[in-house]
Amino acid sequence: MIERERTIGGCISPRRRLWSPVAFGLYATLLPRLRHASGRLLDVGCGSMPYRLYVPPSVTSYEGMDVEARTAGVTYIGDAQDMNQVMAKSYDFVLCSEVLEHLPRPEAAIAEMARILKPSGQLLLSVPFLSRLHEEPHDYFRYTEHGLRALLERHEFEVREIVPIGSVFSFLGHQISTLLIAGTWGMPVVRELAFGVNAALIVLPCRMLDRLTGLARKLPAGYVVVAKRVAHGPAADPDEVTAALPEP
Fold first, then answer.
1. Roughly what angle, to the nearest 10 degrees, separates helices 168-184 and 204-213?
2. Are 26 and 20 in contact (CB under 8 A)?
């Protein structure tokens, strides 16, 4: 069983989900599905490892990969599009949250995740649909549920669930929340007040409007996807796949 940590790199807190309606929706949708993880888990594009607090005891090893170490304990420094340092069929579960839009070759990344998963291994993926440009210039794509299904099925995944995260109300609320929280971050007392105001007047009302209007079907803020690596056939070679793709 992995050790639980209250903070990782001094920047992770359960309160992180209250940052914005989109963050709240992402946690509310992703965490129940993360609880089904077991065995050896790789967090691809792990960033500051915000989900490490929530992995279940059935996860025997939590490991992270990113292009740089933004917190202590990152196992691999590398590119999700070419995880050559990771052995094939070595993980039971792969988590990849809010990463795919930042990769110029998403086909290669999905092929690599298929390669490193054991047969019948699980992939838990999240991506934005409505989102402002961020982390520029490395912001390349937005995904529909149909595009996600096609992308995963091309690489020996069986899609189990594609669940929308919020709607246009969460997207709009996210912009306000970001301005409010980021604008007060350097003022500890004001920041605490801003967190409370944000949660009560922006996060929860936007989430309620998402549910009441049903707009998530056509105007989702993003998606959480659960997919299973099929047990037969080799994963596609990322070099072969990307050779036919245009440059971004």
1. 170
2. no
List per-residue pLDDT tens for the chain, 248 residues long: 333 333 333 334 567 788 899 999 999 999 999 999 999 999 999 999 999 989 999 999 999 999 999 888 899 999 999 999 999 999 999 999 999 999 999 999 999 999 999 999 999 999 999 999 999 999 999 999 999 999 999 999 999 999 999 999 999 999 999 999 989 988 989 988 999 999 999 999 999 999 999 999 999 999 999 999 998 654 445 454 444 444 44
3-class DSSP state for residue 103? coil
State CA 196 to chain mean position distance. Answer: 25
**pTM for this structure?**
0.86
DSSP string, 144-160: -HHHHHHHHHTTTEEEE
CATH pick for 14-166+216-232 out of 3.40.50.300, 3.20.20.330, 3.40.50.150, 3.40.140.10: 3.40.50.150
Place of tokens 């992939």: 123
Distance in angstroms (rounded) separating the CA atoms of residues 212 and 184: 31
Domain ranges of the chain: 14-166+216-232
82: which DSSP letter? B
Q: Which two tokens stand for residue 175?
A: 């912009």
**Gap between the Cα atoms of 49 and 73, Å rounded:** 9
